[in-house]
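Before the break, one more example. Copy the sequence into your notebook; we will annotate it together after we see the structure.
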Amino acid sequence: MDKQYYVYILASKPYGTLYIGITSNLIQRIYQHQAGLIDGFTKKYNVHQLIYYEVHSDAYQAVARERCIKKWNR
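Here is what the structure looks like once it is written out:
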């Protein structure tokens, strides 16, 4: 089975803050964010709710998509 890459968006309910990330293990990564195991933006601003994800079979394609989403107007 080929490796899959996930581009995902997390949000915080109180503030509507968004976080866009990429991973090869979505379930593990979301758990890490929700458990506060990852220091940084999501832990500091309590951004834990998965609101969107998409699957890519190519890492370069996933990175390009992540960059594209990060350029969106919020």
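Residues 59-70 form the longest helix (12 residues). The mean pLDDT is 94. Try to locate both features in your own notes.
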